[in-house]
Description:
The protein is of the alpha+beta class.
Amino acid sequence: xxxxxxxxxxxxxxxxxxxxxxxxxxxxxxxxxxxxxxxxxxxxxxxxxxxxxxxxxxxxxxxxxxxxxxxxxxxxxxxxxxxxxxxxxxxxxxxxxxxxxxxxxxxxxxxxx
Length: 113
């Protein structure tokens, strides 16, 4: 992974907004029409379309148009780079905490002796 992975930045940018996360949660169940996604948000359709555009740019959803109906589908494997990055960060911090724990235990043993 490069230091500044542009795809990972797009992914976290898309996930940073609660409306977009809510849309992803809704899409986890089944592909959904854009108008059905817009209704519970209380947002105007152009605003929802901008959110969908961000999600699509990050690769988190795909859209398909049939007649006048546009349907969105979740692409769950698109979350994998974020999971991988978070797992890497967790491993780094767990190793640091283990080293700190070892250091503190060594200091405590030295004080006792």
